[in-house]
Amino acid sequence: MHNNSNGFEDINFAKLDIDRKERTGFSEVVFCQGKDNSFLQEIFCKLYETNGEVMGTRATEDQFNIVKEKLCFAEYDKISRIIKVGKEKKLLGNIVVCSAGTADIPVAEEASQTAEFFGSYVERLYDVGVSGIHRLLSKKDLLSKANCVVAVAGMEGALASVIGGLVKVPVIAVPTSVGYGSSFEGLSALLTMINSCANGVSVVNIDNGYGAGYIATQINRLSVGRV
After folding, report:
1. Vertex 86: Cα angle to 59 and 6 (nearest 5)
2. Residue 209: which H helix or E strand, with range?
3. pLDDT of 127-180, one tens digit each?
4. Of 2, 93, 196, 216, which has the maximum CB count within 10 A?
């Protein structure tokens, strides 16, 4: 195990990007799905040692228990499937994360908790899909105060277009794999969002709450003058 002058640490099975926070403003996050338990444990320990905090996405409870063996103060959220080892921080700005339905909340929580881990203040607005549009419209004041809005929706994915027509800030659309057979595991929502007629709507990949939370934080940091 050794430090590399190019800004990464080579631990044989992984090359940890220890300079990422200095270079991009965000420390490296661990994608836990599919990783060997011993590899995962060492990666978490080394990133915590380097950054004083570390987050992992798409983690199982068994993987959390493996991490907790070495980092006893690690926390796990079953809904978002996020492992966090970190410190309290002041949350800045304002991001609103919306979900169309309750079934979309796991992806919405991945976005919300990612943004919070990176220092953004998040307002959650869940179960406000277009089948009951009055639920969303009753929260127009909340939406109007946001620096960025994340719209998480499965089925036909119309929520992002509706929000895009209501707010003056960027909307990050997140299609989810929630829906019946012809939703094609999120492809239907993805195509709706990509083809949105509303201005200011950008789209991340299916179920990619992490990506949305990351981009939302970049926008939020610019809004509060912190980059």
Report:
1. 85
2. helix 209-224
3. 999 999 999 999 999 999 999 999 999 999 999 999 999 999 999 999 999 999
4. 216
For the chain, the maximum distance between any two Cα atoms, rounded to a whole number of angstroms, is: 57
Report long-range pairs for 37-42 (Cβ below 8 Å, ≥24 apart): 37/62, 37/63, 37/66, 39/13, 39/14, 40/66, 40/67, 41/66, 41/67, 41/69, 41/70, 42/11, 42/14
Instruction: Give the whole-angstrom CA distance, residue 1 versus residue 135.
Output: 54
Count CB atoms within 10 A of the CB of residue 9.
18
Spatial distance between the Cα atoms of 92 and 116, rounded to a whole number of angstroms:
9
Query: Of 78, 210, 208, 202, which is closest to residue 148 (Cα–Cα)?
Result: 202
The CA R_g of the chain, rounded to the nearest whole Å, is 18
Q: Match 């190019």 to its residue by tokens.
A: 6
Q: Whole-angstrom Cα distance, residue 47 to residue 29?
A: 9
